[in-house]
Input
Amino acid sequence: MRLAARGLTLRRQGRAVVDRVDLALPARGAVALVGPNGAGKSTLLSLLAGLAVPDAGSVLLDGAALLGLSVAQRARAVGYMPQRFAPYWDLGVAELMGMRLQADPAGPLRRAGLQDFAGRRWSTLSGGEQARVLLATVLATDPPVLLADEPGAALDVRHRLALVEALAARGRERLVVVAMHDLELAFEHFERIVVLSAGRCVLDGGHELLHAAALDAVFGVRFERIAAPPHTLLRARRLEASDAD
Output
């Protein structure tokens, strides 16, 4: 396994935000991490990235304790794309990329199709442009592991779809784990779905989870499954009082 969580637990104000999570993630694969608000998705990603210290359990990277590695070693191995990013200074795109690479950013910007953005300041970029730049910056060192936390949350439909497709495609050669809310995008583009509820991993599998009754229970709705070959669409309906009885 490239990345593994063993009994991972993190408590805040006496509550387990991540509760004894065991997870084994291979060297390649596109994994969607889904669950309702407050399920612990962002916290789990921060633990897997080594940005937070667990109260119990451990994260292993290629069999070694992640927190036992230097910050530089972790940064080279694990790329982390936060839900929101705003540099303290209004830097230019080339400056941001150069800080990540510690080298001339011209080549990586060109390969990412962002050469025309090199002189642009962060504040002048649209939401979609910022997401493209942030992803290119994280990927500039080609990390073996990419963790992304709701990367398309602030984007319009077109840009969100393009970003999700790019992340999922990377899973063919590297490990990619993406926390997301959009279940249809998750099931359409990711080969493995991990479902969190109240800090615990309650479902872990492939597209067969679309038909799991437990999925409805986790989100507290009744899903209508609509066949739209080659996909199945989910339409959520609120539970009525009779459904809860």
